Amino acid sequence: MTEPIARPPKKDPQKVTRPPELPPVQRSRAALAMSAAAARGVFALQRCAACGEIAYPPRDACPKCLSQQLAFEPVADGGEVIAETIIRTSTDLYFRQRTPWRIGTVRLDCGPSVVAHLHGDVTAPSRVRMVSKLDKSGNAVLMALPERETENMADDPELRELTASPKFRRVLLTDGRGAVGQAVAAALSKAGASIVFVGIAEPWKPFPGQEQLAAIPNVQIMELDLTDTISVRELSGEIGGKTDIIVNTADHVRPGGLLAQGNLVTARDSFDVNVFGLQRLAQAFGPGMRARGADGTNSAAAFVDILPVYALANTPDFGFYSASAAARHSLLQCLRAELRPGGVRVMSIFTGPVEDDWRQHVPPPKVSPGKIAEAVIAALNGGIEESFVGDVAKDIAARFLDNPKVLERELGL
Amino acid sequence: MDMANKDATGLLAALAAGIRTGGVEVVDLTHTLSPDFPVMVLPPELGQCQPFRIEEVSRYDERGPGWYWNNISMSEHAGTHFDAPAHWISGRNLPQGTVDELPFDRLIAPAVVLDFSAESRADEDFLLTRGHIEAWEAENGRIEPGSWALFRTDWSKHLGTAKYLNLREDGAHSPGPDASAMEFLVKERGIIGFGTETIGTDCGQGNHMSPPYPAHFILHGNGRYGLQCLAALDRLPARGAIVFAAPLKILHGSGSPLRVFALVPAGMGKE
User: Of A132, A202, A277, A303, which residue is the least packed, with the fewest Cβ within 10 Å?
Assistant: First the structure.
């Protein structure tokens, strides 16, 4: 059974903060395709289209028949540990800081035998469930988990390196005015976050759910307006040194295409929240988080952004909003690369149309705030970089992967 | 130099001496323009008033080693600001209705201060009526044409709290004038404009009055001006202050943030 992690003690001001080191960074292009699947929480390996062989580690030609027709696809995740090794010392800076470290050889049900990280509750030999997750370098690694859920399983130190669990972490949620922000705040509190700082812009404007929000355990209401650089700077000056996770719930939604809206003021407001707001947030909090990526149990872990799936392709009925989402998506890609040296993950939660005042005319299916909250917690606990919430988001993502140009036409009909 | 010029020269010299020696006190009626200063709240599907924002361009750093400066942006109606006639539909066809075309002699004018701070303290929806102003005149004398009428409510003291806008589900709640007061001041007393300490020249519930927003409608429909979000009206005497209110010269502008100040005879201002 995993020893539950203890609430971390207060930071010792005399100790140097442990600098974030990364596990090996370089990967082949073939291996990055495995990381891309892991980024979405999928356990995928290469299958040879010619002979059906499952190949691991990722390679350019089939080890059995030399065909180059190797494509990643989801495979059975069962396996059996046949050997284990405990690494007690290493010349690698990342693992050196974290020994002893258990690894093992697992014979996968789908064919190959692989070297994988072993969860503390896995014994050798035993049946295991395999997962493919991103390590701090953003590369897919394999880990063997106990076949069945064990107590405090998520607290295993090797597994925790592959996730951004909110347990005992301090979270900044940027906008608590809306139903999404309030649902995510409640979910984070329930998931064990030690503090959930909830940003409220223009506190002189009352809003629905205000009292319930303030009553959520561990919630602290903070003044924060993402359109105001000074406000963001002031908050980072106050809590930037102890913000482990950011969940950006701010989103400026307005219907209308490029011609129909004809309103630069509204368009600018959308960009000011959705794009420049993200920038202000990243610039004020990002460098501090990147420096604290290995700062113990409550190290900086993740920057989560909730954005519409129309970041991938424009829906003309929300034309300008889609454009702001596309810019936001692009900046998240940039931020992902910039925070990676600190081992801080950037997670995109793509949603379908949310059930709210601005999308009353949008036909169902729509996404409830509760579903988005579940997805945020699942992403943090699973270390998942890209999540798609709701049928519409999943469908758009699948069509985008298939053919973006066809999707453009379909959305523009 | 003719006689009139000579007189004016003496007058200005006396004014300068008064300011220098403290005989004439200068009172700042302006709030600091800051990002957290509230703006008018309208239904979100309508066009929105942008609050004041400031972005640092450089501050003796790699972006500009020897100098500090900012880019600012805001609505014409953010912070302590001036409303020109063209701001309202009733004043849309008037000549000289925008801030770039204001007659220059209107930028400096005497002011009367209608002190209804006690009434506003007792009733957050206090409505100033013709009757109230007539009673004020009975005590303080007739309001002269060309004066600013400044409506003192002490509402500026609520700035920084939710009470300043006092928003509830049925809208904002703050004092203001009704149509009878505005008709009286504009048509029978010929005021140059009306100034308030609240977010607008109208009361919080102005949309539900007849005509809607009577201060805006009547003032601007008759070529008069508005001043809002004023500070320190409690430091002005009921009569005797001269107000300097010169908006920025914005091409076709409907209004502008500005520095408003008053000259008052020292000792006459209240503390």
Answer: A202
Domain B20-34+76-265 has CATH 3.50.30.50: yes
- The answer to whether ipTM exceeds 0.85 is yes
Q: What is the pTM of this model?
A: 0.94
Cβ neighbors of A58 (< 8 A, separation 6 or more) are: A28, A30, A31, A33, A34, A45, A46, A70, A72
Provide the 10 A C-beta neighbour count for residue B208.
11
Interface check for B71 against chain A (CB to CB < 8 A): the answer is no
Between CA B203 and CA B269, with CA B177 as vertex, the angle to 5 degrees is 100
Please say if the pLDDT value at position A261 is more than 60. no
Strands A170-173 and A113-118: unpaired
When pLDDT is averaged across residues A246-273 and rounded to a whole number, the result is 90
- A228 neighbourhood in chain B, CB within 8 Å: 35-36, 51, 53
List phi, psi (to 5°) of A246: -115, 135
Determine if the peptide bond prior to B211 is cis (ω within 30°): yes
Q: What is the pLDDT of residues A230-241, one digit of tens each?
A: 999 999 999 999
The domain locations on chain B are: 20-34+76-265
Helix A319-339 / helix A276-291 crossing angle, nearest 10 deg: 10
CB nearest to A263's CB, from B47, B164, B167: B47
In the predicted structure, residue A268 carries a pLDDT above the cut 70 = yes
Report B:165-224 residues touching A (Cβ under 8 A): 165, 167-168
* Burial grade of B225 (CB within 10 A; 0-12, 13-18, 19 or more): buried
> pLDDT tens digits for A359-389?
999 999 999 999 999 999 999 999 999 999 9
Query: pLDDT value at position A38?
Result: 97
Q: Please say if the pLDDT value at position A147 is more than 90.
A: yes
* Domains contained in chain A, CATH given: 29-60+70-160 (no CATH), 170-411 (3.40.50.720)
Contact A204 B35 (CB under 8 A): no
